[in-house]
Amino acid sequence: MTGGPLIDTFGRLHDNLRISITDRCNIRCFYCMPDADVKFGPRETILSFEEIERFARVAARLGVRKIRITGGEPLLRRDLPDLVRRLAAIDGIEDLAMTTNAVTLAAHARPLYDAGLRRLNVHVDTLDRGRFLQITRRDLLEQVLEGLFEAKRAGFQIKINAVAVKNLVEPDIVPLALFGRRHGFEIRYIEFMPLDAQSLWDRGKVLSADQIIETISREVCPLEPVPDPDPRAPAVEYRYTDGQGRIGVIASVTRPFCLNCNRLRLTADGNLRYCLFAIEETDVRGILRGGGSDEDLERTIRENVRSKWLGHEINSARFVAPPRPMYSIGG
């Protein structure tokens, strides 16, 4: 493999790959999926572990250093520790993480840790059972918390992701912050983005990062920016001035970070996307299943990176929501 690192026409280096392994999920968060009649892709289109491993090996040779396993809900894939072992063994991969809703994590935490996974982002919008049911349409908060603490006991480094929807989760901002301080979890508040399957999003429903930071600083403890932040990280991190932990905010709407983006996404059905909000995507399943070479994969990855746009333009009249909902793209 030759040709240097994955740099787009705006000079951005790409070393972070998010791999969705399923579009199925066992909860139905309203900002991601409808409650019924969900349109999943045919199972035969979903990439096998062998196909995912092959793609990841080529990507690693092109400079990818970080991989995050996503879904849907990745714990729904059978024999997931096998994939973790495959990815963890790839030369060049320095960081392997997974995003999960933790509904079945209690039974999977130890096998995944033993297979080589070390970092988890667990999705928990609220600690209130009634509001959890309202958001996810499933009464499973107890199982989520059980999985979260089992993963902590197993030794995982854990961050908690919480989507911030205005006029809904304001009562949850402070309890989540206190929960994180008490148990050593970094809470990452994510501004509500236009990625739902029912076109429910509008800007008036975005609880902004500034509002969240102001609330926590006033009601929990003052916050200050973490010094020397990673400019390519999606979350801007703040630490409590009393030294008891930190939070992160992902302000995709009010503070877009497109100019520093270093991420590529592989969907569960084998399409490569240069942006979460991309309108177009590049087929790699055809290469993997049609006798294509690793050189063909390399060329396709490079072309996808070269075609990457400057940014998603959420804050302009030119913005067009992607044709896929979040669960189909991959978190």
SS class: alpha/beta
Number of self-contained structural domains:
1
Mean pLDDT: 92
Strand order of the largest sheet: 7-8-9-6-5-4-3-2-1-10-11-12
Q: What would the CATH topology be?
A: TIM Barrel
- Helical residue percent band: 25-40%
What is the helix tally? 10
Low-pLDDT runs:
none
Spatial separation of the terminal alpha carbons: 29 Å
- CATH class (first level) name: Alpha Beta
- Work out the number of β strands: 12
Tell me the series of helices and strands, N- to C-terminal: EHEHEHEHHEHEHEEEEEEHHH
Largest sheet: 12 strands, mixed
What is the structure about, briefly put?
By secondary structure, the protein is α/β, with parallel strands linked by helices. Helices cover 31% and strands 17% of the residues.
